Amino acid sequence: CHVAMPTTKLSSDTFYRRTLPPTCVAFNSPQGKHQFTSALQHKGLKSFFALMEQFTTQSEPAFCGISSLVMVLNSLAIDPRQVWKGPWRWYHEDMLNCCMALEEVKKMGITLNIFSCLARCQGLQVEIHFAQDCTLESFREAVNRSCIETGDDENRDDINPLLVVSYNRKVLQQTGIGHFSPIAAFDQVSDQILILDTARFKYGAHWVPLPLLFDAMLPVDPDTKKSRGYALLSYKQESDDIQGLHTSILVKSTATDNSIRQNYKHFLEAKKVEGCKEVKWEDVRQYWSEGGKNTSFVWKTLEPQIMPVDEQACEAVDAVLSLVRALIPNSSSNKISLEDDEYKCRKSSNRVISLAFDEAICIIYLASLSPDLCREHIFTVGDSFIADDETKAQLLMEAELVREAIKTSDEMEEALQEVKKNQSNNCDCD
């Protein structure tokens, strides 16, 4: 027999999905299937299958950038070297809690520069392009690089680079404003590209004209005063380029209080105004110990990583730490009591890397130098210490990631202030 279910009156301010506007073609529609077949015939699915395997729905209305990055990381088969659940290591949105606090991301979303910072923290090579500085043809070239198979691609699994776009939905006649999503396919015949929309509760995957999507990246983002744009993301297991190395293995920039990094950035800028071309070790040490009184202050901007699970990675951590210790000036010892200077958080876990105060200061000091001097410092001392090139390059990357977080601190703080005044421009709340 049929039992009638009770009727629940729904609030008028809730939604169950949205209808795609005429500017878009639903992926599962007859026309969408036809365009997919055409893309297949013309080798426009280079990125499709890897991304489709990892197609996910963002878990928060403002997580489109975070979710797009998670899709890319899992599509590129990158080991996060930390546990998701049970015994499984797998990227999840909650793991990307660096550069900017997730609680803040939930309120306002992220900008293209912050997206780049997050990606680089995971070891990705990132090319970001603001639409205002590009042409339609340069965007088309990026789409071709990401989506079109060439003769070199046929016999290998390399899907680099993957393409993520940041655009204004209103230009596509969709509801909402700022949005991120990956591009999975390109049909050259119709000149349309396939967006795997991470807000699947709102719009399913759909095709849009390539020129129209470029137009959607051009409007200025009120949070940054720049246009939106796109990012090409690649991962290489072995590379001399610091952007192509593994993710950071020692530290990550904590995101609980971005103003702390912003204040330090202003401190460095003030030093330059005073005529100091490069900041000195003791200046950095005094700043992050609050004049020698507080060795715990440094942990408000740095957090040691969890110790890797495999033996080879553990050996790499030990090698980089040994190089860090070799870089600490002897003159700094015992000027500050180190009785309680090790990172003490997460006492319930014995897997957190044990990092001392001066070791953390050394990483921040390297990040505070110009990139050329940082490299020279690491490689000169590294040669005398007999550290191998991979160890030196890894430490160079650790410093670069901290430098990136310091560099973008003003933008993040300005965006936070902007969202306090206005509704987020990077959130699918309507």
Features of this protein?
14 helices, 39% helix, globular, single chain, 430 residues, alpha+beta, two-stranded antiparallel sheet
Describe the structure.
Mean pLDDT is 84; it is low at 238-246 and 333-349. It is built from 14 helices and 13 strands. It has 430 residues and is α+β, with helices and mostly antiparallel strands. The strands form four sheets. It has a seven-stranded antiparallel sheet, sandwiched between helices.
How many DSSP H or I helices? 14
Radius of gyration: 23 Å
Largest sheet: 7 strands, antiparallel
Which structural class matches the secondary elements?
alpha+beta
How many DSSP-defined strands? Answer: 13
Strand content: 5-15%
Strand order of the largest sheet: 1-8-7-6-5-11-4
Order of helices and strands: EHHHEEHHEHEEEEHEEEEHHEHHHHH
Q: How far do the termini sit from each other?
A: 40 Å
Q: Percent range for helical residues?
A: 25-40%
Can you give the mean pLDDT?
Answer: 84
Spans with pLDDT under 50 lasting ≥5 residues? 238-246, 333-349
Note the overall shape: globular
Topology overview:
Elements: E1 25-26, H1 30-41, H2 48-53, H3 64-75, E2 83-85, E3 88-89, H4 102-108, H5 112-121, E4 125-130, H6 136-147, E5 162-168, E6 178-187, E7 192-195, E8 206-209, H7 210-217, E9 220-221, E10 226-227, E11 229-234, E12 251-253, H8 258-273, H9 281-288, E13 302-304, H10 311-327, H11 357-368, H12 371-385, H13 389-407, H14 409-421
Antiparallel strand pairs: 1-8, 2-3, 4-11, 5-6, 5-11, 6-7, 7-8, 9-10, 12-13
Helix pairs in contact: 8-14, 9-11, 10-11, 10-13, 11-13, 12-13
